[in-house]
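Researcher: Please predict.
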Amino acid sequence: MLRTATIAALAAALASPALAQENPSTGGWTFGAGAATDNRSKDASKSDGDPYAWALAEWTSADGLFYVSPGAETIKAGGSRLEADLTAGVRPQAAGFDLDLSTTHKWRLGADAGYDDDYWEFTANVSRSIGPAKARLQLQHSPDGGGSTEAWTWVEARVGWDFTDKLGGTIALGRREQDNAPDYTGWNAGVTYAFTRQLELDVRYHSTNVDDLGRQYDDALVAGISVYF
């Protein structure tokens, strides 16, 4: 039921007409890189609980609506130690909400023979900010995930608060349903501190309701640093 409802919501979001941004940007390229004590995605580890590094680039159109973003991150899955991805999407605004609708193709490089090393993800984010308060609803779906995981769907609600112009906190609760892998509920809570406009530190606690399935689903306190230019 969750997967059916989520796919329908994603289809409706992707079919909606794109609206121009109210505040056009100058567009062009931006870059980012970082590292953290664990690679957490949807509150589960992609690096078996070990530290990881990541890098990305993003090209945005002059009006801020369209973007393309290649990236890479270190992982531990199926013999692969590096996952590359390419994302294309749009960021329209509608009725006071910010939308981010994207398609991503991911490759797990150097994976073992016979391992399913590439997959697609479709994402729809709906966000709203009112003063220091922020909220986001995220819907993600893959028709066939990496490795032995087949179709999966992730739904997450996140709320946040900017305590100062440098310090903000967020709490998120999500649910993942997947074929040929455990269904689970995950949550995280943490703070982000911006040393400068380009340099950020994030400290976050992640947890799931899955027990006794290895470090992938263990609770973890994760610290990460990010730089953008």
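Model: The longest strand covers residues 97-109.
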